[in-house]
Specification:
Oligomer: heterodimer
Structural class of chain B: alpha+beta
Radius of gyration of chain B: 19 Å
Structural class of chain A: alpha+beta
Strand content of chain A: over 45%
Number of helices of chain B: 5
Low-confidence stretches of chain B: none
Mean pLDDT of chain B: 91
Strand content of chain B: 15-25%
Helix content of chain B: 25-40%
Radius of gyration of chain A: 18 Å
Strand order of the largest sheet of chain B: 1-12-11-4-5-6-2-3
Largest sheet of chain B: 8 strands, mixed
Number of strands of chain B: 12
Amino acid sequence: MIRPLAMLVVLVIACSIGACGDRQQPPFEIRDLRAFAPLPGSNTSVAYLTIVNNTERELRFTGIESPDFARTELHESVLENGVMRMRALNGLTVSAHASVVLREGGKHIMLLDPHDALQLEQTITLVLKASGGAETVLRTSLKSRIAIESSARVNERNPLPW
Amino acid sequence: MCAAALIGAATVATQALRAPLAPRYATVLPAPVPLPDIMLRDGQGNDFTVASLSGKVSYVFFGFTQCPDVCPITLAQLAGFRGRLAALADSELPNIVFVSVDPKRDSVDRVGAYAASFGQGVIGVRGDLDEIDKLARTLGAFHARPTTAEGYSVEHSAGVFVIGPDSQYRAVYSAPHDADEWVDDWPGLLAAVSQTQ
């Protein structure tokens, strides 16, 4: 139920900024939004999503905020010569009819210092800020970082090779 | 002529059967590298020294608990890999060792809670930077904490370093990682890292 609600919020706001006719696509869509609860011992977590630009012009997003966290930053994990570094991103640019994918091991939304102790399945809010000031409100429930699928089940599907 | 060819083929086949499996994905060191004396603490506050690595294969990963992306992904992969070996006797299962390179923020309690969240066999370790550096230098692992506008960020090697049951550095897996590769490699890696030299 959460994801359709989040998408509805996106569509309503995207249409309200003036680029969405009755039978047209919204100017952009948010897909594959997911956020993870901070692990024990950590006050940092992460969210990922995909922004799909349906327009013929470049779209620019200046950042993401959340009322649930003291700080929210856009970062990119970069593997250089075997060393993992995080680079801060100054917003996101999505080319015409293209997508920007935030995913594991790449671009991501870093969520720091939650205001309250967060629980699994708790809904958090993210606010995606477009250049020009339009805001898109996204909501999603927190998932576990640890694999949900048991190793025994993985072995059933994918038997040990030796 | 024909008999000689058959004998030759049989000899090759016998040698192949006797040859130990070789890991396909790990880079095995040509000779084991002894680890230096280190004094770290595990997540329960116990001493963690080279002797703590004795008797089991250990997969060592450097990181920090505030790492949002790559560290939890890698540790979850390692924990999943260990879980897939669950049919082995407990004494044969590898240890997963998470070494914090952010001792300023990562207390013993934090590292312990963080590592334990990945399941049994995942050991969190922290220590003073000079002790961590002794271990990192021997493994060829990089770690740094460059200053940023918000304070500092943490950079670290993404590799997974394999320590043999004799507490010597034996092999390394370079990033990006794939838990299926660790599973495929396990018999060959175990044979390679258990050889005495």
